[in-house]
C-alpha cells in the first residue's frame, strides 16, 4: 500500500467552508427574524391568544324590565330557565354529543344538527352555543348527573319571560322570542340566543326593557375546567315600566265579551290614557316565549277567527250609525239649523236605487237631535245629498279618521275615508251620488278602527282635543290636533248622546243609571247583502253567523269627577244596543261601581241631569216625535204626501219655511202639502225621492199596448251587494286593475250601492 503525502504548505480550497458558514449564518438570521416576528412584532397578540386559552369571557344576561299595571300588579315578569349549551373547543366528538342530546331530549337529531350548523358561524369556539333554551325540570334532573361525562356540554341558567295573565293581555304586551338573522345583523348589541320583543309593547319598548349585559372572566385548565371566576362588568337590568291599564277593568271587559268575537276600548277622555284594551279571541303569549311547534303555529295562523289580530287597531270596520256623530258635527259646521227637519217614511229613492231607513215605516218628523236619538238614516241621506262627498271627506279627516292615532302599539291601520280621487285610483270608476248616501250613515267604503272612534268621542268630551291614545302611565297627554267643532256643536252632540240613553226612544237605553250622566250612540254595520223575503228583511238571528251585522256602541260616562269613554265592537253581533250595549254597561259598573237599584233600572222620569255647562236642548229637537206615518189628530188617516223630490246638491235647503214643520209633512192644519208646491225635479230620474209611508218603491204598471197589468219593474235595493272588505286583511291603498289587492280580501262589487241601512234596534 502506497501512502501519498501532501506537499508542505498545501492549502485546501476555502469555497466549501465559506458556503457552509453562510448557510449557518442564514439559518441563524432566519431564526432571529422569526423570533423577532413572533415575540416582538406579534408578541402582544400571541400573548393575548395564550391568555384566552386560559381565560374565557362569559356574558351575564341582564334581567328584562318588568311591566306592571297602574296599581303595580305584574303583567310581565322573569323566571329562571335552564338551557343546554355546547362549547365546541372542549367537545371531542361533536356528532356523538349531538346524538346523545337527541336521545335525552327526544328532539330529532336532524333538527339539532341543523341548529348547530346554523349557529356555529356566530359563536366563537370557546363560547356557549345554545342547543336548548328552556328544559323542563324533570329533563334537567335526568341530564344534570350525566352531563359531566360529555365534555363540552354545560347547563346554563338564563331568565325567561313569563306573562301571568296570558291571553288577557297578549295583544297589549305582545311577546318575546329568539332574535332572528335580520335582527342580529341590524343590532350589534344582540348575540345569538338573545330574546327580543316581537310584538306589542315588548317590541315598541325593546330598548327600555332590554337592559345591558355584564361580563365574567373565567380561568380554565387545559381540559377546560373552571379554575377561577372574576366579575368584569356588572349587568344593568332593564327599566321597569308602569302601564295605564287597569287590570281589573281589563278583566271585566274580557269577561263581558264572553265567547263573542270583538273588542273593547276604555279611555280617559282628559288624558288619553287607555284603561282597558281587549281583543277577543286572543292567544297565549307564553307559548311564543317558550317556542311554538309548526303544528301550533299553523293552528293559530289558520284559525278563522284570527286570534293573532289586534282588532282595536288592526281591524277596520264600517262604523255604521256611530258615524252620524261626525256627520251631525259636519252639518252644524256647514250652517244647518238643528231645528230643521225632514220627513222620514222609511226609505228614499235615487233613480232606481232605494235607500231604506232601519225602521220600517219611518220615524216621521226628524230634526238633528231626533236623528241622533233614534238613529234615523233618511235624515242623513237627504242632508248628505245636499253637501256631497268632498265636504264629508274633509271634515272626517279633520276629526282624525283615515289616519293612525299614534297609539304605542305596532302595525296600526289607518282605516279609510273615501273620496272621488281614491275611488278613481282604486277602482278606475267615477264617484256616484248614491255612494255619498252610503257614506253618510257609515257604510259603503267607509272604514274605521275602534281606537279611532274612542279618540273621537274623547275629543267631544275634553273640549275638542284629539289625544294620542296612551298605554304608558308616565306619558304626558299628547294633542294630535283639534276637532273642527264649535263649543256649541260639541255640546249638542253630547246632549244628543245623553238623550240617546235617557229618551224612551233612544237606542242606548241599556246604559241608563241614576247615579251617573251617561251618553251613547249605537251602530249596526252591515257586512253582506240584505237577505229579503218579499219586502221583509230576514232577521239577524236567522242568518248565518258570518252574514250577521257588526254591532257598535260608542259611549261616555261621568260620575263624581270620574269620566270614561268606552267603545265596544262585536263582530257579527247583530245590534249595537242589545249586543254591544251590555258589554259597555258592565265596564261602567266596574269603573263607577254598581248603580243603586241595579236590577230595577232607572225609574221613569228619573233620568240624570246633564253635566255642568250642558243644558238639554229645547224646542223641536227635544220634543218626542211619534214614529211611523204622520197623522194629524184632527184629521185621522191623513199621511205624508205621495212623493217628494229633493233638489240636487247645489239647490235650495231641505228645511221648510216654518222650523216646526218637516219637509213634506202635514202642516198645522193637518193637510198635506199640495202637489204644486213640490219641487219639479221629482220628474227627473236622478232626483232623491221620499217614498210615501205604506207604499212600495217598486210600483206596478200597465203595458201601454195591451193595457194589461204588469209586474212591478225591478228596482235595485241600495243595500244589496256583496260585502267588500275583510276587516282583518283589507288594504285601502292596494291598486290593481280590478280594484283588488293581492291579499286584501276584497270582493269585486256586483252593485254600485250597497251596505246602506242597519237593521232596527240599532
UniProtKB/TrEMBL annotation:
Biased composition (Low complexity): 598-681
GO MF annotations in UniProt: serine-type D-Ala-D-Ala carboxypeptidase activity
Residue ranges occupied by any Penicillin-binding protein dimerisation domain in the UniProt entry: 60-229
Domain of life per record: Bacteria
Limits of the Penicillin-binding protein transpeptidase domain: 262-588
E.C. numbers: 3.4.16.4
A UniProt-annotated Pfam family: Transpeptidase
Compartmental location: Cell membrane; Membrane
Primary residence: membrane
Keywords: Carboxypeptidase, Cell inner membrane, Cell membrane, Cell shape, Cell wall biogenesis/degradation, Hydrolase, Membrane, Peptidoglycan synthesis, Protease, Transmembrane, Transmembrane helix
Transmembrane segments: 15-38
Top EC class for this record: hydrolase
The keyword Transmembrane is annotated on this UniProt entry: yes
UniProt key word Transmembrane: yes
Skewed-composition ranges (Basic and acidic residues): 716-727
Membrane topology: Single-pass membrane protein
Ranges for region Disordered: 595-762
Alphabetized PANTHER family for the sequence: PEPTIDOGLYCAN D,D-TRANSPEPTIDASE, PEPTIDOGLYCAN D,D-TRANSPEPTIDASE MRDA
Protein name: Penicillin-binding protein 2
Species this protein is from: Nitratidesulfovibrio liaohensis
Upper lineage: Bacteria, Pseudomonadati, Thermodesulfobacteriota, Desulfovibrionia, Desulfovibrionales
Amino acid at each position: 500500500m502506497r501512502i501519498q503525502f501532501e506537499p508542505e504548505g498545501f492549502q485546501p480550497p476555502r469555497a466549501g467552508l465559506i458556503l457552509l458558514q453562510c448557510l449557518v449564518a442564514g439559518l441563524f438570521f432566519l431564526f432571529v427574524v422569526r423570533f423577532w416576528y413572533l415575540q416582538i412584532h406579534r408578541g402582544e397578540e400571541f400573548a393575548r391568544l395564550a391568555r384566552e386559552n386560559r381565560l374565557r369571557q362569559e356574558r351575564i344576561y341582564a334581567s328584562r324590565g318588568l311591566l306592571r299595571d297602574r296599581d303595580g300588579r305584574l303583567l310581565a315578569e322573569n323566571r329562571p330557565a335552564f338551557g343546554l349549551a355546547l362549547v365546541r373547543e372542549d367537545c371531542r366528538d361533536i356528532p356523538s354529543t349531538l346524538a346523545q342530546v337527541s336521545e335525552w331530549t327526544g328532539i330529532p337529531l336532524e333538527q339539532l344538527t341543523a341548529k348547530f350548523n346554523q349557529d356555529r358561524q356566530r359563536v366563537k369556539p370557546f363560547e356557549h352555543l345554545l342547543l336548548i333554551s328552556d328544559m323542563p325540570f324533570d329533563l334537567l334532573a335526568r341530564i344534570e348527573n350525566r352531563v359531566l361525562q360529555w365534555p363540552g356540554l354545560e347547563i346554563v341558567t338564563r331568565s325567561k319571560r313569563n306573562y301571568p295573565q296570558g291571553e288577557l293581555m297578549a295583544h297589549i304586551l305582545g311577546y318575546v322570542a329568539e332574535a332572528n338573522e335580520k335582527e342580529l345583523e341590524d343590532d350589534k348589541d344582540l348575540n345569538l340566543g338573545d330574546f327580543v320583543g316581537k310584538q306589542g309593547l315588548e317590541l315598541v319598548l325593546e330598548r327600555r326593557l332590554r337592559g345591558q349585559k355584564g361580563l365574567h372572566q373565567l380561568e380554565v385548565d387545559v381540559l377546560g375546567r373552571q379554575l377561577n371566576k372574576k366579575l368584569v362588568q356588572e349587568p344593568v337590568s332593564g327599566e321597569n315600566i308602569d302601564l295605564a291599564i287597569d287590570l281589573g277593568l281589563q278583566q271585566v271587559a274580557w269577561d263581558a265579551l264572553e265567547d263573542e268575537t270583538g273588542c273593547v276600548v276604555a279611555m280617559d277622555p282628559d288624558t288619553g290614557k287607555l284603561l282597558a284594551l281587549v281583543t277577543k279571541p286572543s292567544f297565549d303569549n307564553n307559548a311564543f316565549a317558550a317556542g311554538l311547534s309548526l303544528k301550533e303555529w299553523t293552528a293559530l295562523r289558520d284559525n278563522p277567527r284570527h286570534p293573532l289580530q289586534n282588532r282595536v287597531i288592526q281591524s277596520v270596520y264600517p262604523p255604521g250609525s256611530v258615524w252620524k256623530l261626525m256627520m251631525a258635527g259636519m252639518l252644524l259646521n256647514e250652517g244647518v239649523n238643528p231645528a230643521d227637519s225632514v220627513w222620514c217614511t222609511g226609505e228614499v229613492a235615487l233613480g232606481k236605487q232605494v235607500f231604506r231607513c232601519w225602521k220600517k215605516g219611518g220615524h216621521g218628523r226628524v230634526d238633528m237631535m231626533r236623528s241622533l236619538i233614534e238613529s234615523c238614516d233618511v235624515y242623513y241621506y237627504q242632508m248628505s245629498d245636499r253637501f256631497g262627498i268632498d265636504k264629508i271627506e274633509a271634515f272626517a279627516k279633520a276629526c282624525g279618521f283615515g289616519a293612525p292615532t299614534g297609539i304605542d302599539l305596532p302595525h296600526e291601520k289607518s282605516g279609510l275615508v273615501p273620496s272621488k280621487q281614491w275611488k278613481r285610483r282604486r277602482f278606475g270608476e267615477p264617484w256616484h251620488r248614491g255612494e255619498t248616501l252610503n257614506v253618510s250613515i257609515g257604510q259603503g267604503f267607509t272604514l274605521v278602527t275602534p281606537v279611532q272612534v274612542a279618540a273621537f268621542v274623547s275629543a267631544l268630551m275634553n273640549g275638542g282635543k284629539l289625544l294620542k291614545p296612551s298605554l304608558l302611565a308616565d306619558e304626558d297627554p299628547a294633542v294630535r290636533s283639534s276637532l273642527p267643532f264649535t263649543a256649541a256643536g260639541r255640546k249638542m252632540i253630547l246632549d244628543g248622546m245623553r238623550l240617546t240613553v235617557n229618551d224612551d226612544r233612544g237606542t242606548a237605553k241599556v246604559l241608563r243609571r241614576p247615579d251617573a250622566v251617561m251618553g251613547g250612540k249605537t251602530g249596526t254595520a252591515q257586512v253582506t247583502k240584505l237577505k229579503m223575503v218579499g219586502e221583509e228583511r230576514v232577521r239577524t238571528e236567522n242568518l248565518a253567523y258570518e252574514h250577521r251585522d257588526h254591532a257598535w256602541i260608542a259611549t261616555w260616562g261621568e260620575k263624581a269627577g270620574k269620566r270614561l269613554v268606552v267603545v265596544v265592537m262585536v263582530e257579527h253581533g247583530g245590534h249595537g244596543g242589545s249586543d254591544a250595549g251590555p258589554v259597555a254597561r258592565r265596564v261602567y259598573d266596574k269603573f263607577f261601581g254598581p248603580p243603586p237599584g241595579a236590577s230595577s233600572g232607572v225609574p221613569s222620569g228619573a233620568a240624570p241631569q246633564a253635566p255642568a255647562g250642558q243644558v238639554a236642548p229645547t224646542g223641536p229637537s227635544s220634543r218626542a216625535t211619534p214614529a211611523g206615518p204622520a197623522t194629524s189628530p184632527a184629521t185621522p188617516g191623513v199621511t205624508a204626501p205621495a212623493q217628494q223630490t229633493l233638489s240636487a246638491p247645489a239647490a235650495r235647503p231641505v228645511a221648510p219655511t216654518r222650523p216646526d214643520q218637516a219637509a213634506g209633512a202635514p202642516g198645522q192644519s193637518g193637510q198635506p202639502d199640495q202637489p204644486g208646491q213640490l219641487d219639479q225635479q221629482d220628474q227627473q230620474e236622478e232626483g232623491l225621492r221620499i217614498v210615501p209611508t205604506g207604499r212600495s218603491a217598486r210600483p206596478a204598471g200597465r203595458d201601454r199596448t195591451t193595457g194589461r197589468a204588469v209586474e212591478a219593474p225591478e228596482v235595485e235595493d241600495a243595500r244589496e251587494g256583496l260585502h267588500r272588505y275583510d276587516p282583518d286583511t283589507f288594504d285601502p291603498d292596494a291598486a290593481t286593475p280590478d280594484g283588488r289587492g293581492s291579499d286584501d280580501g276584497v270582493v269585486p262589487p256586483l252593485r254600485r250601492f250597497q251596505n246602506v241601512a242597519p237593521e232596527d234596534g240599532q
